[in-house]
Fold:
Amino acid sequence: MFKNLIKVAIRNLLKHKSYSIINIAGLAGSIAVTILILIYAQSILSYDQFHADSDQIYFMYRDRPTEDGRLDVFDTWYPLVDVAKEEFPTIAEGTRSVNIGNTMIQRGDKGFEQSLTYADSNFFDVFSFPMIKGDPLTALNEIDAVIISEEVANKFFGDEDPIGKTLTFGFNNERVVTGVLGKIPSNSSFTFECIVPMNDRVVHNWVGENLWGGSFCNSFIKLKAGADDKQLADQLHILMDKYVVEQERGDFLILPIKDYFDKMTGQKQYAYIMLIVAFGILFIAIINFANLSTSQSLLRTKEVGVRKVLGAKKGGLISQFIGESMIMSLLALLLGGLLAELLLPKFNDLIGIQLDIVYSPINLSIMLLLALAIGFISGSYPALFVSRMKSVSIFKGDKVSGKMTVRNLLVSIQFILAIALMGSLGIIMQQIDFMKSHDLNFDQDNVMVVPLSLRDFEDPQAALPRVVSFRNELKKLPGVEAVTGSSSVPGNYRRSFTLFLPKGKEDMPPLDWQVAVVDHDFFNTYGVDVLQGRSYIQGSANDFEHGVILNRTAMEQIGWSSIEGKKLLFPRSREELDIVGLVEDFNVQSLRDPVQPLVHYYGGDSARSYRFISIKLNPKSRESTLASIASTWEKMDFGLNYEYYFPAERFRDLYETEENIANVLTYAMILAIVISCLGLYALASFSVMLKTKEIAIRKVLGASISSIITSFSKQYLYVVLASAIPAVVISWYGMSDWLHDFAYRISIGAEVYILAILSAIVIAFITVSYHALKAGVTNPVDSLKEE
Structure:
């Protein structure tokens, strides 16, 4: 019996090749997209969960009260995890880490800048990062140890075993390689190139004798199995009251490590958006599958009639048609899996993440069950439709049309999803364009940035006059309008914060503001407007020791309208700072976030604390000036790689996630529209088959082809228009929620939805008109003879 069903199913698939190809291809494309999006969502939603006992690992951070609410602060004090473990027995382990940026590493004649992380010796007791050489539990026990990544090991040692070999850090600090990290999963919030041990002696060098004197650590705890995290969170204020000075008190908070990545990036919302899109497209394909199968079943009425006369039961017919549907679904699954593999490299490029399709028994079982479920659901309606046909009616030539309302509803749902996707994509693209073209209140196109720090040199003291000389030589070049040095630049402002109090308002909570060090020409170079006061005076000792410049947001947070006679205080020392200038707000980070209060110190001309040289170019001679700057660099013979970039490039990178999602949604939208059109194509084909006689009679009575097309297409355009309202509501609600996460955002206008609806109407009209035109040009005599 089963063998016979398979034979009949394959025979019918081959007999109606065009329908079969359209059906399988549409479903296969949807399955491929669903597979790719599912592995993306799975990666995002399972971030940092590869660690053993990941559900027991928590990130410790804090917040501070501000005028506008509370501000999350992610760095904590070095002793925090130790005292937390002492105070709360539910904490099994605690560990810390801090990334200090790139440092020069050498071995023989090889030298590279690599990212350096300090971590406690028990770091690998808490985290399960893969280590392919060395013992993770002891690799950080020695003060001169270093764990390196496999990539760093290949750079310096090639095929040699690096364990026990030495590397020189910062030109004079030798460390012994005690471990090599393997490939860290792509869904890890933390990656490492070099890890060295952190201990009390190292920290004392950073913050002095008082280890509570500065916060800089990433702190993590691991709770005992079954511990109540909510109860612990409610008790953490004990630590704040007991160990933290009053001016810096807020609340200690804990965050499950599985939520860390989303807290920092907000990427979970994109995973959920993509999941909705994936299942929406799959749903569209299922509807399309059902509509095409129903249309195809009309071509098999005589077969059904004969089988019924020969004794076929209703259940047998239903089994036959559902079985055929499942076979097509399984074929689509195989094709979709192959297509997903072929598209994976392109998909990885689109989303900026390297993913792999893992064919585990569980995943294969889920995919198989999904295909069978799709086949059953998609085949149920046409199976029930065909099984209701009566043999007598079939052989008399009567047509069993079923209810067009159901098929119209199914196509309407397809276009609801397609129009919603078109509208949503349009809004996402508008927001991306808005962020890219938004006036950031500084010159991001004509200022080039050269990363150059004294710590890049073996002898910083000897390098100092050469760096200053380089800046002076740049100022002499034709086409260079200004040169400045700074610790931070727009798009790369260091997360360095200091507490301040406004003089005269000492009773208010301390203000935790971001700080940067700049020279006298910084604001002029970047074209930032000075609203009150002045910029720094070159060489001014008073500006160097006591002067600060605030941005507008900082002033507004205090509540002052003028800087005249105003001062800031350090909460602990009560040392006074003169506010010498007020500058316009300028964006130093993504437009997702509002402009934060900024305090700029004057670093003088010595370049000791500067990490960047910014050069303002005359746009008319940009290319020749770039060549001259490169030549000047070569003459200085720094022995460093020459690198530069424009802030505009960095700001474009800040919106890479949104652009990647938009790219994926573009392809998803195209697929949704194509599949929706296939559904409409099937419905129109079905309708033409039912109205062949009517069209023929209208032609005999003198109706033109254009009137037939118009009359025939009108009902389907109504279906598309009926889809517009729910589509707009769904999209508007979802996009309003998405835009709410951006400090600077567009207003949703009607034009994007009008364009989406008009596009859907045009596409639907073209699709339907093909069948109407085909019916219109058919000789009515042939149609009536057939009837």
Residues 415-437+651-787 form one domain. Residues 416 and 726 are 7 Å apart (CA to CA). The longest helix spans residues 314-351.
